[in-house]
Amino acid sequence: MRCNVQVRNGEETDVGNDPNKPNFSNVQSGSETTAPVPPKADFNNVQSGVTSTAPLAEPAAPATYTVARGDSLSKIAKKVLGNANRWREIFDANRDQIDNPDLIQPGQVLKLPADTASKA
């Protein structure tokens, strides 16, 4: 039995003993290196956080409503807050100038609750 035979153009050639061809019969797969193994990354001291270079926004001026003739706190609440039953929120925001919720005057400037600043 011949193992190292090559057939080319119908002719057999013994390739096992050809001194011009390299011998790869002892080749093995795998790799080795002499380089040192790098240390594993240490992420034990990583901290999260957020920073911004954007300037801080100025606090929005409180929304106001100027009382018109015929207005009541419940009418203002319905018009500005969408619910007449929220009149007490307007009253509470203006305790410094209103003692009686039934006695508001045309031309009086009322502060609106903070959550309505964008709706007013």
Describe this structure in words.
- There is one protein chain.
- The chain has helices spanning 73-81, 87-93, and strands spanning 5-8, 11-14, 64-66, 109-111.
- With 120 residues, it is low in regular secondary structure.
- It has a two-stranded antiparallel ribbon with strand order 1-2. The chain has a two-stranded antiparallel ribbon with strand order 3-4.
- A hairpin with a 2-residue loop joins strand 1 (5-8) and strand 2 (11-14).
- The protein is built from 2 helices and 4 strands.
Helix-strand blueprint:
Layout: E1 5-8, E2 11-14, E3 64-66, H1 73-81, H2 87-93, E4 109-111
Antiparallel strand pairs: 1-2, 3-4
Shape: rod-shaped
Number of strands: 4
How would you state the average pLDDT, rounded? Answer: 83
**Largest sheet data:** 2 strands, antiparallel
Please report which band the strand proportion falls in: under 5%, 5-15%, 15-25%, 25-35%, 35-45% or over 45%: 5-15%
Brief summary of the model shown:
The chain is mostly loops. It has two helices and four strands.
Keywords:
2 helices, single chain, two-stranded antiparallel sheet, two-stranded antiparallel ribbon, 120 residues, little secondary structure
